[in-house]
Write a structure and sequence with these properties.
Largest sheet: 4 strands, mixed
Distance between the termini: 90 Å
Number of helices: 2
Number of strands: 4
Length: about 110
């Protein structure tokens, strides 16, 4: 094993999942500029996370879509537009078939 590649500057840090209202204090080397006053009255560095064991579907058993960048909304909009276009094309095809049938009946 290589020596002196592992960090030595571990310190107490609070990780907070605001979406689930869950936070825990642990040792970490994570860098942050934010601080929080913890339950013991001391101030610790704060690292905010998007998902934790309190909000992850694997641990909660619930299906949740956590989307911080709007990808799910863009996908749903694209999918809805594709469905609308598909229905529009089907309606046009039905109208053309009906017009063709009228022309062949009138002959």
């Amino acid at each position: 094993m290589k020596s002196s590649i592992h960090p030595q500057n571990y310190r107490p840090v609070v990780f907070s999942d605001d979406q689930a209202g869950f936070a825990f204090l642990t040792q970490s080397t994570a860098q942050t500029n934010e601080e929080i006053k913890w339950e013991d009255g001391n101030t610790y560095p704060l690292v905010k996370v998007h998902i934790s064991s309190a909000s992850h579907p694997f641990f909660t058993g619930e299906e949740k879509i956590i989307d911080t960048e709007g990808r799910v909304d863009r996908f749903k909009a694209k999918f809805a537009a594709a469905e609308a276009r598909k229905k529009e094309l089907q309606n046009k095809a039905k109208k053309r078939a009906a017009q063709k049938a009228k022309k062949s009946d009138s002959k």
